Amino acid sequence: MYPWIVLVVTVVFFVQVARQARASRSRHSLFWAVSLAMASLATAAYILAAGTGDAWAFRVYYALGAVAMAAYMGLGSLHLHWRRRSLRAPAAVTGCVVAASVVGAGLTFALPVDAARLAALEGGPGTGVISHEGWLGAVWLIDLILLNTFGVAAMVLVALASVFRAYTAGAPSGLAWGNGLIAAGGVLLGAAGTAARLGFPGAFWLVMSLGWIVVYGGFRLVDATLAKERSGAGAAAG
């Protein structure tokens, strides 16, 4: 049930952010849309893999969801931060993240799959299904950890900075509360993967679904608050 909740939330979220990206042509919306597309496709691939035992579908789930998704969400957050500071986003950071995600995804398809663990997936996150023995496996695991740490940290820290900025500037409370929810949701998303690797796989999809719901709720609150501000400014100008 919980993977289906994640799928529905991320698809709805993706559609709304993709519309914003198309309208604004902003880099942060583009990276968020890419991240949400990855999350949706990864979840759909997981549902397929869990139902059929298909190894290729599981690799798609892991390459998009476990390796790349969080890092691209973090890039979106950083591009938003850089834009607000009127600075150009350092190409080196974006290039390193894209390169690392390509390497991680490639290794996900190159490393062997543990067929027994895949058959025993039973709603778990699939930790250990991709064998990471040997030096290539070690490179893949380090790459995965670094990308996820970067993504979650960037998302949470930028959201918290936005909370502080909204509070100190006396901005509408919806901006502070919305960004606070985004930060809390980011912590939940990071906690889901951490719990799975620490030996608590049963909570993965529950915590993941809660994380996405909270992040989406924060996004909607920020979006509604900004829309209200724009509407008020337009009425005042009229």
Task: Annotate the secondary structure layout.
Elements: H1 2-24, H2 27-52, H3 55-84, H4 91-110, H5 115-119, H6 134-168, H7 173-197, H8 204-237
Helix pairs in contact: 1-2, 1-8, 2-3, 3-4, 3-6, 4-6, 6-7, 7-8
- How many structural domains can be distinguished in the coordinates? 1
SSE series? HHHHHHHH
Major beta sheet summary:
none
- Fraction of residues in β-strands: under 5%
N-to-C span: 49 Å
Average per-residue pLDDT, rounded, comes to 89
Determine and state the CATH class.
Mainly Alpha
CATH hierarchy: architecture: Up-down Bundle
Helix content: over 70%
Radius of gyration: 18 Å
Are there runs of 5+ residues with pLDDT below 50, and where? none
**The CATH topology:** Rhopdopsin 7-helix transmembrane proteins
Number of strands: 0
Count the DSSP helices.
8
Class inferred from helices and paired strands: mainly alpha
* Overall spatial form: globular
Short description:
This protein is mostly helical and 238 residues long.
Structural description of this entry:
The protein has 238 residues and is mainly α. It has a single domain (2-227), classed as Rhopdopsin 7-helix transmembrane proteins. 83% of the residues lie in helices and 0% in strands. It has eight helices and no strands. It has helices spanning 2-24, 27-52, 55-84, 91-110, 115-119, 134-168, 173-197, 204-237. The longest helix has 35 residues, at 134-168. It is globular. The N and C termini lie far apart (49 Å). The model has no long low-confidence stretch (mean pLDDT 89).
Task: List key phrases describing it.
single chain, 83% helix, globular, mainly alpha, Rhopdopsin 7-helix transmembrane proteins, 238 residues
